[in-house]
Write a structure and sequence with these properties.
This protein is α/β, with parallel strands linked by helices. It contains twelve helices and 13 strands. The two termini are 30 Å apart.
Length: 453
């Protein structure tokens, strides 16, 4: 089912909806407040890749054209939520007051999510209700299209065949004819019940699990070790965090789902699974701030044992918000260009990207650059070497041979394959890898994956 035709306002620029699942959470509030601040010229678009020269002339919707709404199961109004974030140092002092009107306008477009406690509606009834909310949003606000972005708290992996809430929202997005982004490791579109709908919906989608901190660094360090032929013996990590993330990830099932994505990047970029695990600890006093430590034990020449330790400290909402704005604009432009299905070219933004994609950040950036050029030419395939899903990819920025990605020969994780199939591997032929053969890859079964915001 497609969204109802939008109503154009004479003399106005085309407007694009951004429908946030978890619309009153920290990430969503930062997205709305941040977009308003950038539009008003109060702050620079730091962290937004779509505002760099790479995307000049691509035809992305302007930030001023974005209209926000969403679903949530809480009733704390966005202006009040923004004030709390400013008190915690997440938003700049005084910003909530400066963009109160924009926050209130977005809050007026938030509809009750579900299922709520005691909710007796069937999954299909919930999907129909969510779809109607989306279609009404597009119609009333005169939007050319709307992109649905899941930024809700991580849910545990499903233990039965019933679709979890994240999958109900994803199904509603497809039924409404809306592009979809899963910025969390929750199930979303990766549920067997949604496979046929995903194939027939005719919209683009991307995800899952936004790459904002520790895993971003791992996607750089893993290829470094592989390309320098240094043997990583163990890679362990610890995360300390509070706020909604910490509360949601205090659930061992949710934490396991999130950790699987972090560890998968290490395995994919190294070509082998080193010893060590990643742990997450809920520290409520930290609020929206995170500290992540990595301890990497590796061997150098003549088996000399060495260690690299890293510390990443950051505000998750401030790291995630510019990526959400990037993805909303990219999916809207992809939809306008007629692209459909998974977009592995956007792996740069995710721990576990849709479709077959490399895991090394440099290769992912090359794919993103190719995608920018593809959009610049109206979505047409490019006559260059290498292919990215429906279109080719120009050579990446790295001179050295890339690390192992998610292409042929990789032992796939267990569980259902992502809708749309793997497609061709979106990297150029690297030639022989300058590392010793690790033998059969001991990839662990990560199980289903999840995320908190």
């Amino acid at each position: 089912m497609s969204a109802s035709p939008s109503v154009s306002v004479p003399g106005s620029a085309p407007r694009v909806g951004v429908w946030l699942i978890g619309a009153r959470g920290s990430v969503a509030t930062t997205v709305v407040a941040g977009c308003a601040a950038l539009t008003a010229g109060l702050h620079a678009p730091t962290g937004m890749v779509t505002e760099t020269p790479l995307f000049a002339g691509v035809g992305l919707p302007p930030l001023a054209s974005l209209v926000f709404g969403g679903h949530d199961t809480t009733d704390c109004a966005l202006p009040k939520r923004a004030e709390a974030l400013a008190e915690g140092g997440v938003l700049p002092h005084g910003l909530p007051e400066a963009v109160t009107a924009e926050l209130a306008a977005a809050d007026a477009e938030i509809r009750p999510g579900g299922p709520l406690p005691g909710d007796t509606r069937t999954p299909d009834e919930l999907i129909s209700a969510f779809t109607a909310d989306l279609q009404d949003f597009v119609r009333r606000r005169g939007l050319t299209r709307a992109v649905v972005v899941n930024v809700a708290s991580t849910e545990p992996a499903p233990t039965d065949t019933a679709p979890p809430p994240s999958s109900l929202y994803a199904a509603a997005a497809l039924r409404a004819g809306c592009p979809y982004v899963n910025f969390t490791p929750s199930t979303g579109l990766d549920h067997p019940a949604l496979a046929s709908l995903a194939e027939s919906a005719g919209v683009p989608w991307a995800g899952r699990d936004g790459k904002t901190g520790q895993t971003l660094l791992r996607s750089v360090l893993g290829p470094m070790f592989a390309q320098r032929a240094l043997t990583v013996r163990a890679w362990s990590g610890t995360n300390l965090l509070g706020g909604g993330d910490g509360a949601a990830l205090a659930d061992p099932a949710a934490a396991a789902a999130k950790n699987a994505g972090k560890e998968r990047v290490v395995t994919d970029t190294l070509g082998t699974a080193p010893e060590g695990e990643t742990h997450i600890d809920d520290v409520p006093a930290l609020g929206d701030w995170k500290t992540a430590w990595d301890h990497i034990a590796f061997d150098g020449f003549l088996d000399t044992r060495m260690v690299l330790q890293t510390t990443w400290q950051g505000c998750d909402s401030a790291l995630a918000a510019p990526l959400v704005l990037d993805l909303a604009r990219l999916l809207a432009r992809a939809h306008e260009a007629g692209l459909t299905g998974p977009l592995p070219e956007l792996a740069f933004y995710f721990k576990d990207p849709a479709g077959e994609a490399p895991s090394a950040l440099g290769e992912q950036y090359a794919a993103l650059a190719g995608f920018a050029e593809r959009l610049r030419t109206g979505g047409r395939d490019l006559p260059t070497a290498g292919a990215v899903a429906d279109g080719p990819l120009p050579a990446g920025p790295e001179d050295g041979p890339p690390a192992a990605g998610r292409g042929p020969g990789r032992t796939p994780p267990s569980g259902p394959r992502r809708p749309g199939g793997p497609g061709p591997r979106p990297v150029r032929d690297p030639g022989p890898r300058p590392v010793r053969d690790p033998g059969p890859r001991p990839v662990r079964d990560p199980g289903p994956r999840g995320e908190a915001r």
